[in-house]
Amino acid sequence: MITLDSPVESVLGAAKGNKAKARLEGISQRLGIRTVGELLRHFPRRYLETGSLSALDELKEGQLLTVVGEISSSQSRTYRDRRTGRTAYRQEVTLRTEGPSLQLTFFAQQAHVGKFNEQRLSRGRRGIFMGKVGSFRGQWQLANPQMVLFGADGEASEELAALSLETIGPLYPIYPATKDVESWDLQKAITFARTLIEDVPELLPESVMDEYDVLDARTALDLVHAPDNWAQITKARHRFRFEEALVTQLVLGRSRRAIRRAGARSRAGGDGGLLAAFDAALPWELTAGQSEIGTQIEADLAQPHPMNRLLQGEVGSGKTLVALRAMLRVVDSGGQAALLAPTEVLAQQHHRSVTDLLGDLAPGGMMGGVGVELLTGSMTKTQRAEPLSRLATGESGIAIGTHALLEEQVQFFDLGLVVVDEQHRFGVEQRAALTDKAGSPPHVLVMTATPIPRTVAMTVFGDLEVSTLSELPAGRAAIQTNVVPLAEAPAWIDRVWQRVREEVEAGHQAYVVCPRISTDESEQVAVDTDFWHYISVEEGEEPATWPLRAVEELVVELSTGPLAGLRVSKMHGRMTPDEKDRTMRAFSTGEIDVLVSTTVIEVGVDVANATTMVLMDADRFGISQLHQLRGRVGRGGLPGLCLLVSHAPVGSDARARLDAVASTTDGFELSRVDLEQRREGDVLGRSQSGYRSSLQDLRVLRDEDTILAARRAAESLLDSDEDLAGQPLLAESVLMMEASRESDFMDKS
After folding, report:
1. Residues 452 and 567 in one domain
2. Which residues contact residue 611 at a Cβ distance below 8 angstroms, ignoring those fewer than 6 apart?
3. Which of 133, 250, 288, 408 has the smallest number of Cβ neighbours within 10 A?
């Protein structure tokens, strides 16, 4: 008997040989489908609207045609693309139908795509083809039609012979596929599995399905794979998105309740002397947002349960100041605070900036003040000895460091607050390693300069209270961002270096960021192509490959060429921590005019005199990363300039990303664009989501209403039965996700 737990090969048919073996490997390894249940949860990516499939009896120019046919001939040809001047590839196919034959033409700009078309569009293949019909030299043709191919050459011939126009429904499912596995293979297996599986366990309580108008699991599975109309697809999809949202919200809801149950020492501030003295000495006033969030944090710290708060704000919005005031509140209460930074460069800068902000309150100041210790991986045992001793005895109140803070020998006298900067660089496991050093659960404040839309915060950080710094401090200047399109105007790179020289001659400094350290790295140039094995490559340019610029080579090129005479230096991850620190100090003090770097300067590096940011091969960076890097300039009241240098052609996804960044400096708007272009799991990273599967069918922007409804349903279920004892299947799914959150936290590189 075949069940949802049966191995997937049980429904793949009896075909033997290398092709069958390759197909099984593709399904189980590349698609991650190992059971029949996982196969049934492999939903169509889209649907081919077949309308009324019919033979070609009365064709008209421009008519949208959907037809079943067999390839009777297939020829590969090359030609010179007039626009690019490069060799392009064309596959000319003759399709035999129940009516007149059709000519099909498939165009490709790159050799590997042309080869791919040649292999799959072989003589004897059958499939569904859809496109606008036209005529050429008295013969009907389709150019770059969409298609679904049935099986491999000669495979399942009896089944294919039985396939007729009448057996294909009005909406034909197209499944995400991979090498050696086509949509047709998956459609056959899923259809067969649906006929065998009688019992589909129901995860959702009947009361929830009724209240929120959600289909049962069995009906939803049938409709998502074999719909008659779009309304059925909508209802089926809603069921599975609601289910995913509900399980996620139950996990987050249980986490919020567990945090509130955990006891913590109130950190009300004692006499508040340190914080009061600090505020009095500040040479500027807090922004309204900083004051409001500061009040929220102080209220959290005074509670007998741990604060668990996310502080988000644009680059330069003043998050560090808010965090420092929270740390001083804890020190006023007799406790200690630790600030965890992702890089030594950032940790060192935090140490300098915190010490500078404290002034006479810092160690060695007139008031004796609060001890601030720095701990990094590059420090020797001797260098660490005294800071470790002062933290263990409580002599020092604040520790700032990298992963070195997590080491076993680091002990605190009374750790009351953990601050995690650029939290997307850390997994929850790492944060837990630091909080475990406290005698009682410490308060936690995590910060990010990557703006997070409300639905993301609700879905991924739903166990945190969220505070947002939306205004920038006074003195932040506007940043002009321009795309430098080398694909259309290669000579513009000369103007880029001319603008850098002009800024330096005006007394300012510039960053130049490259995606690679050196050209001798064994890296593959990842081309952003997204065509699927089950449809034809649609007409249009694929991005060309080109050598990515590297720090080591570019710094020499600039020093001896367009920027000769300027003080050009480099920084990247292969340099020692001391080398990076010396370089950043020299850049900060104006001893370096142009710093050529990797993204090591992405977070937290503040140089007020830097006005220009040049991003080489900018299309290789994500939107959030581009926004973060851009925020390194315009920080000293001087107008900033950001130049996005790219070979990405007009119309490509990569170019669209760059145009979006150039069009606005609103980080929250860009975060929405980023989410719309990429899967949430890619955007958030596993370290943020804390769930190895990330989001499957749910999309936090598209499904906001579903998430809100699921959150209400989750709270209601937990209010009546927090352990979900009355819903064992739902409880099992929740426990699985909770276990995943505990075990699969990875550092984001």
Report:
1. no
2. 503, 508, 509, 510, 633, 634, 636, 638, 639, 640, 641
3. 408
Residue 694 lies in a domain: no
- On whether both 291 and 231 belong to a single domain, the answer is no
pLDDT-based confidence at residue 540 (cuts at 50, 70, 90):
very low
The highest-confidence range among 214-218, 374-378, 667-671, by mean pLDDT, is 214-218
Q: Same domain for 580 and 524?
A: yes
Q: Which residues contact 632 (CB under 8 A, 6 or more apart)?
A: 315, 511, 601, 602, 605, 606, 607, 610, 613
Count of H helices and E strands in the chain? Answer: 25, 21
36 with 119, same domain: the answer is no
Question: Distance between CA 725 and CA 719 in Å, rounded?
Answer: 12
If DSSP codes are grouped into helix, strand and coil, which group holds residue 165?
helix
Contact between 20 and 52 under an 8 Å Cβ cutoff? The reply is: no
C-alpha–C-alpha distance, residues 652 and 684, integer Å: 23
Domain endpoint, select from 469, 496, 524? 469
pLDDT at 428: 57
Q: How far is CA 443 from CA 148, 198, 265, 310, 338, in A?
A: 56, 50, 9, 12, 11
740 located within any domain: no
* Tokens linked to 718: 């937990």
Please write down the HEC assignment for all residues of 252-299: HHHHHHHHHHCCCCCCCCCCCHHHHHHHHHCCCCCCHHHHHHHHHHHH
- Residue 285 class from Cβ within 10 Å (0-12 exposed, 13-18 middle, 19+ buried)? exposed
Q: How many domains does the chain have?
A: 5
70 and 15 in one domain? no
**CATH number for position 103:** 2.40.50.140
Chain centre to alpha carbon of residue 611 = 28
Residue bearing the bigger pLDDT, 461 or 391: 391
Predicted confidence (pLDDT) per residue in 697-730, tens digit: 777 778 888 988 999 999 999 999 999 999 999 9
Q: Which two tokens stand for residue 157?
A: 């011939």
Determine if residue 403 is left, alpha or beta; phi over 0 gives left, psi from -120 to 50 gives alpha, anything else beta: alpha
Domain that residue 718 falls in: 203-261+703-730
Question: What is the longest distance spanned by two Cα atoms in the chain?
Answer: 95
The secondary structure of residue 537, as a DSSP letter, is P
Judge whether residue 544 has pLDDT over 50: no
- State how far the Cα of 319 lies from the Cα of 290, in Å rounded to an integer: 8
Same domain, residue pair 539 and 586: yes
Chain mean pLDDT for the chain: 81
Q: How far apart are CA 62 and CA 105, in angstroms?
A: 16
Same domain assignment for residues 346 and 462: yes
Angle at 705 between CA 455 and CA 726, to 5 degrees: 95
Would 679 be classed as within a structural domain?
no
Residues facing 643 on adjacent strands: 482, 614
- pLDDT over 90 at 450, yes or no: no
pTM: 0.63
Instruction: Report pLDDT digits (tens) over 228-280.
Output: 999 999 999 999 999 999 998 999 899 888 888 888 889 998 877 889 999 99
Amino acid at 657: R
- CA 204, CA 727: separation in Å to the nearest integer? 8
DSSP state of 181: B
The 10 Å CB-count burial string (b at 16+, else e) for 118-131 is bebbeeebbbbbbb
CATH number of residue 487's parent domain? 3.40.50.300
273-308 pLDDT tens trace:
889 999 999 988 898 999 999 999 999 999 999 998
- Token couple for 549: 């610029």
Residue 314: closest CA among 628, 614, 611, 640: 628
**Average pLDDT for residues 144-161, to the nearest whole number?**
57
The answer to whether position 741 is within a domain reads no
443 pairs with which residues across the strands? 417
